[in-house]
Amino acid sequence: MHPIFERFPYRVPANKRVRVIVNTDAANEADDQYAIVQALLTPKLDIRGFVATHFGTNRTDTSMEQSYDEIQRILRLMDMSEDYHVYRGSTGCLNLDSPVISEGAQFIVDEAMRDDATEPLFAIFLGAITDLAAAYKAKPEIAGRLTAVWIGGGAYPHGGEEFNLGNDVAAANIVFGSDIPLWQVPRDVYKMPRVSLAELAVKVKPWGAIGEYLFRQLEEFNMLPTHTLRWPPGESWNMGDSPAVSLLIDDQNFDYELRHAPVIRDDMGYDHPGTARQIRVYKSVDSRFIMEDLYAKLQLFYELKSSE
């Protein structure tokens, strides 16, 4: 447990804590950063390490390295660089003929196969699910030793175009066809946590170097001239990655349904043969809980750091 949590005004029972791997395409846009910070400030989560992954090759050939650098930047701003390992993950889609086991995929295998750990292991995926598919191909035994939470895929029942899925459809099919326990947060659900930039200016920006950075990098991204007329809206943002963290704090055990895992077509539509294993598919998330938890933890962190 990070030393800062010893000074928090509340404690988390030891038997409620979980091990967590955070797999993120952190440099893709501006909301992964919020999820990373919320995970770092959540005492229930024993973060075992971060894995940087790609966000496709349409914009750059170095998206994984950019994500790696962004994770490191956040850790530096929070004075946590010495506390957490960051691993390099996949640089692009999984090659099904000769899968590359990245440093990050190997870390997933190693953490899942530990025999000395007593806390359950969760791996959250905020982008393409390439590294989990590679880890599973290398060591299928991990299926019984972790639970995956994925922000990705189109709305049910039909599916459709979605960014994270589109960056590696084959990897998603490997995971969906595996025995890995999976909680999926599809596009229509991860779009629920919406905030205004005014709200972020008041509730995020004031809280130290990390609060300033979270707000500034989002505001700067919002102003990029390369955006379309439809996205982003201009004065609001969708915190689409944050549900993966909040569901580890409270899994909302009444807001999901068990579905047979679909087979995903190349056009990202879902086929439902009805014979596959079941996965947990979320129908909604609690946006108020997600954002207010982050705001409170940012303030607590700032006040504790300021008193050192």
TrEMBL record:
GO biological process: purine nucleoside catabolic process
GO cellular component terms, A-Z: cytosol
GO molecular function, one term: purine nucleosidase activity
Keywords for the protein's UniProt record, in alphabetical order: Glycosidase, Hydrolase
Statement: the UniProt record of this protein carries the keyword Transcription regulation: no
Ranges where the Inosine/uridine-preferring nucleoside hydrolase domain occurs: 20-263
Domain of life: Bacteria
Protein name: Inosine-uridine preferring nucleoside hydrolase
Species this chain originates from: Cohnella phaseoli
